[in-house]
Design a protein that fits this description.
The protein has 4 helices and 3 strands; from the N terminus they run αβααββα. With 81 residues, the chain is α+β, with helices and mostly antiparallel strands. Strands 1-3-2 form a 3-stranded antiparallel beta sheet, sandwiched between helices. The longest helix has 11 residues.
């Protein structure tokens, strides 16, 4: 588990295969929009914590595959209440 967060660097590490999941809150559209095509091209999945389209920004979860993404979304569910 890695806690230091360097925003775009962390997402780039996911695209490179160095980390499996990135979870951040309070992203603005300019924080996430440029990264969505890069992550998608690397095979990653980008959504909000409530599994909505990430283009709306806000609380973002990015995973390297669908299985990890679903696990993280399940863990984040209590935080949405």
């Amino acid at each position: 588990m890695q806690f230091p967060c360097f925003d775009a660097l962390t997402y780039a590490q996911l695209a490179e295969g160095r980390v499996d999941v990135v979870v951040q809150c309070a992203n603005k559209i300019w924080d996430i929009h440029p990264l969505i095509p890069i992550i998608n091209a690397a095979g990653g999945i980008v959504t909000t914590w409530d599994n909505e389209d990430a283009v709306i920004a806000g609380n973002i979860v990015v995973s390297n595959n669908r299985s990890n993404h679903n696990k993280i979304l399940k863990l984040l569910r209590p935080a949405l209440k």
